[in-house]
Amino acid sequence: MTNVQRRILILYTGGTIGMIRKDDNAYHPFSFENLVSFIPELNDFPFDLKADSFDEPLDSSNMSPGHWLRIARRIEKDYSNFDAFLILHGSDTMAYSSSALSFMLNNLAKPVIFTGSQLPVGIPRSDARENILTSLEIAAATNEEGGPMVPEVAVYFEYNLYRGNRLQKVSSQDFEAFRSPNYPLLAEAGVQIKYNRQSIRSASIGRFEVLPNLENRIAILNCFPGMSPELCLPLINNPENRALILRTFGSGNAPTHDWLLEALSELIQNGVPVINVSQCSAGEVEMAKYDAGRRYQEIGLLGAGDMLLEAALTKTMHLLGSGLGGDDFAEAFRSDLRGELSD
Question: Which architecture characterizes domain 218-334 according to CATH?
Answer without folding.
Answer: 3-Layer(aba) Sandwich (3.40)
